[in-house]
Amino acid sequence: MRTSVPEKIIKIIDEIDAKGNANLTRLTVLKKWFEHPGRLPAFGLWVAARAASRKGKTAGAAGELFDEARALLVGRKIGASGLDRTAAEDLHRRLRDFQNEHRNQNWGPVRIIHHWNLLLVEEGLDVYLCRHDSPSHGYKLATDYCQHYDPRYGNGLNGPSRTKLEEIVRFMFNLEALEDDVA
Fold first, then answer.
1. What pLDDT is attached to residue 56?
2. What is the CA radius of gyration of the chain?
3. How far apart are CA 124 and CA 118, in angstroms?
4. I want to staple 101 with a disulfide (CB 3.0 to 4.6 A). Which of 26, 29, 68, 112 is the partner?
5. Residues with Cβ < 8 Å from 96, sequence gap 6 or more?
6. 125, 69 in Cβ contact below 8 A?
7. Contacts of 125 (CB under 8 A, 6+ apart)
8. pLDDT digits (tens, 9 = 90+) for 54-106
9. Shortest CA distance to 128 belongs to which of 28, 50, 61?
């Protein structure tokens, strides 16, 4: 079912082009899109696969987790089912355990993240496995996926966020087209 949400994301891209940045809260338009059945788990799986496919050299236990995530997730068609749920749950548990270091700060404990893309794989699998299945969790996953720190603007949508937003728009168009084919 075709919606207007991808066009709203394109307007965010236009704002980045014009002003250099956009606020992360502009992505709240995704919450409405995620209300449609099946979109949220498909998005979680898609983000996990995108994060697992990022290039870069990582050794040791992190490298092994990346290799396993790539083998499980990368190359899947959008909206495709048939993912080994037991393997996904096992990988999710090991990703969570791998980056389970916390430090106490004045305001409370803070989780220390050494590998952002591994965190995105973990969060994507979390959404896919329906542990967090509200549109708000999809929004948070999208902001985590797209945000970028720039000293001129802080943490928000800028520079490299533009490409990630374009990827999300393509994902949305593809998933909506698949939904139309099924209907």
1. 72
2. 17
3. 10
4. 112
5. 122
6. no
7. 44, 45, 48, 88, 91, 92, 95
8. 877 788 999 999 999 999 998 888 876 778 999 999 999 999 999 999 999 99
9. 50
pLDDT band with cut points at 50, 70 and 90 for residue 147: very high
Tokens of 170: 């393509």
**pTM of the predicted model, to two decimals?**
0.92
131, two tokens: 């542990």
Phi, then psi, of 153 in degrees rounded to 5: -120, -15
Phi-psi region of 82 (alpha: psi -120 to 50; beta: other; left: phi over 0): left
Q: What is the mean pLDDT of residues 35-49?
A: 95
Percentage of the chain with pLDDT > 90? 75
The rounded Cα 83 to chain-centroid distance in angstroms is 17
Backbone conformation region of residue 157, classed left if phi is above 0, alpha if psi is from -120 to 50, else beta: beta
* Alpha helices (H) in 20-128, listed in sequence order: 29-34, 39-52, 60-73, 85-98, 116-128
Has residue 110 got a pLDDT over 70? yes
